[in-house]
Structures are given as structure tokens and as C-alpha cells.
Amino acid sequence: MTFPGKEHHHHGHGHVQNTPSQPVSSYLTRNLGNRVLYVVLPLLLLHLYFFAHHLQPSASPPPSLAETSVNPSFNINNENKKKNIEKKREKGFRVPVSASTTDSSSPQECDFTDGRWVQDNDAGYLYNDTTCRSIIQEGQNCMAHGRPDTGYLRWRWQPNGCDHLAPFDATSFLRMLRNKHLAFIGDSLARNQLESLLCLLSTEVTPDMMYHNGEDSRFRRWRFPKPYNTTISIYWSPFLIKGIEKDESKGLNYNTLFLDIVDERWAMEIDEMDLIVFAIGHWFLHPAIYLDNNGSSSLGCHFCGGMNHTEVDFYDVFRMAFDTSLNHINGANDGKKKNKLVTVTTFSPSHFLGEWDKAGACPKKEPERDDVVVEGMNAEMRRRQVEAVAAVTKKKNRSVEFAILDVTRLAVLRPDGHPGPYMLPFPFAHGVGERVQNDCVHWCLPGPIDTWNQIYLEIVKNWWKKWKQQ
Fold first, then answer.
1. Rounded Cα distance, 273 and 279, in Å
2. Under a CB-based contact definition with an 8 Å cutoff, are residues 38 and 380 in contact?
3. 70-123 pLDDT tens trace
4. Which are the catalytic amino acids?
5. Pairing mode, if any, of strands 155-159 and 115-119?
6. Strand partners, 73
7. Considering the domain boundaries, does residue 8 fall inside one?
8. Could you tell me if residue 19 is inside a domain?
9. Domain total of the chain
10. β-strands 275-279, 181-186 pairing
């Protein structure tokens, strides 16, 4: 069974154990029998939901920026670009002094991770399914697909200990990115965040589609016209490192990851990138074999029974993927004058509460209580990302700044923000069927994920101010 408009995830059979196993640092030593099972049901459902898409040999990376040209047929139809933004600015929201990054020299007045969702009936949204329809992925277009409630749009994130998080200012963002290239690199949640950002920016000016290629247009590039001349791209790279994706149609039931080799599809373009956003996670829950030393040696595998490989902790593999990728960027930019901002968006959890193909898999209509704790797999995945960024930051390459866009807690509290059954158009038009496909992983557009980009704007502001002072 496939999900239109997104990665096509075929579900498997039998009991799935996506549990953490033996740390990579002691690859072949301990037995997994006593390891703690973190949130077994969500892992099972994620495993079923994310089985899937394979690498397409013909899906080459985008051409060099100098080679691209405008294709007017992909122009975004946005007939009312600024209808809400001025109203928002009049409400008196003030921009926080700075965004948190891992650079200890930067001001730390506002920790955006520490906060709560506050109901605000005036919150609204800056775009909708009409003004940004050509960008929003069909599976995330909840309004157009008939989702009847709009309460999930009436919440704003209030950081504790600092002023209101400012509404997204498209003009400010584009001015700071004038003549720059921003690349989103990762899986379908990277794409989800990218499309949110494009819709927010489209309230100021319509971008032109420059390039698209690969299954489901996995590689795409837009350019905002003069005076901005800003380029924004998406690179499909669900592991960041080199990977051969599973293909059940060919009998390949596991991924193969090369832990010390970056994915060349984005790495070959890094000299042309000024800002990078990494967003990955859920693909590491799949069965996989892990290779090291340029593929010459095996470290083990995750959930690949009967293959005579030692079980390895996918948390540590997740950390290694970031170490390899961040260190590659750090080394590639060493000694160069071009300053880069590399941001890691932390793990965004799923909210499956039942079977993915039954009505009510993610039925909530409001955020969770503020006392909900980030724990289990969500905490472990986030921790590995934070540690990887902290480690590379210590290497003191002044031409690269690394930042954490820490959204895990914000996301954990928003089970109401997923498409659920509205991943497909009008799923209950003929009543509730026996099987109802649900997406409890991605986010409705507009929706909570727009807040990720509000915070990202603050990170960019912080970087831009320091860059201008140099």
C-alpha cells in the first residue's frame, strides 16, 4: 500500500523490534537482552509507516547554481501575499534579543526550547491552502483535504523568561539571505520544514522554481528574484551519510549505511551553500547494515535477524552520521573566507496512538499539557544531535557556525498538528471505512511546524549580525 504525495511506505509483517542495542563504541560485546525497550508501540508503527522509498539512480543532484534558469511554468500563484503580516506586526510582538546557538560567545537571553504553547484565537496564519497550494505537499494540505477543525492553528509558542517569539518576517529573512543559498538536507521532515518556509516567504515575494528532479521531486531549487536573489534548495538525504536504501520489490529488506562517507549528492555542492539545515531521524529506525572504513568492514546491523551480524545501537549510528557530516563541512570550509551557518533541527516525534490504518490514530485536537516530559527514543535521538553539534563546535573553525534548532519538546506537545486521515482528500466523505490511512509524523501546512521557522529566523538573525561585524 502506498501513500500518495509522500514517501511510499510498505508495511512489513510480524513483530518489529526497533529497540536500541549495543553501543557502536563497544560494537561486538554486550547482549541486547537486557536493554530497555523505549516506546515499543510507536516504534512498531513508525517501522510500518516508514518502510520504503529507494534511491533512484537517475535522481541526480541539482546542477550548479550557475547552470540553473527560471522555469516560469512553476511560478507560485499567491494572489494575496501580505494580507495578514501587517496585522500581526501591529500586535506589538517584540523580537527576542537573540537565538540560542552552541557558540558560547553569543548572547543567550532567550532559550526557545523552554516554553509552552499558549492558546491565542488571534494567532491565525500567514498563508493557506490557496495562497501556497503549489508548494504544499498534498499529504500535508489539511485544509484542502477537508480537515474541519482549525483550533490547531490558534496556538503560539511562548518562551519562558523572554519576550514573545516574533511573528515570521519574510522581508527580514530575505534581506539577510540576499545573494545567498540556503539548503535543506534530509528526509521528508526536512522537506516539510522547507515547504513551510517557502510558504512563509511567499507572503513577501513569489519564488521561481529553478529545478526539480528525482522521484517525488526529491531535489528541487527555487530562487527569489531581485533585489533578493536568494536561492533555496532541498536535497533528499535521509541519512546524511552515504546509504543504499531498502527496496523490498528487489528483495532488499534493509538499508546499508557507510558511516564514514558523506552523501555526495549534497556534499559535492557545499561550496555553493551559505546556510544549511539538516533534518533527519526516522529512517534510522529501519533495519540496516552498518559499514566502516570506506565500506571495507562491517560494524554490525540493526534488526536484521538471520544475517549473522552483531546487533548495534542505532542511537550511536545516528550520532556517527552527524559526526561524519558536520566534520566534513567543518573541514571543507577550513581556511575559507565564506562563512556558513549549519543548523541541525532536532528530532520531531510521531504521535501514533493506535493502528496507522484505523480511524483515530492521532485524534487529538489540542496540545499536550506543559508537564509532558521528553523521554525515551525522542530524548535519546535529540541528545545525540545536541552532542554532535557541541563536539564539532569545539573545533573552532571561525568560518562555520553551528546551531541547534531544538524543536523536540515543541513537537512532542503538539499531537494535534498532524494530517492524520486528512493526508488524503475528504477521507470520510462516504463514512468511516474499515481502513483509514493516517499520517501522524508529518505536519499540516499551515501548522505547528511554522513555529520551527520562526525560531530559525532568530538563529539566522544572530548569525547575520556576527557575520556583518566581521
1. 16
2. yes
3. 443 333 333 343 444 343 333 322 223 233 444 444 445 688 889 999 999 888
4. 188, 439, 442
5. antiparallel
6. none
7. no
8. no
9. 1
10. parallel
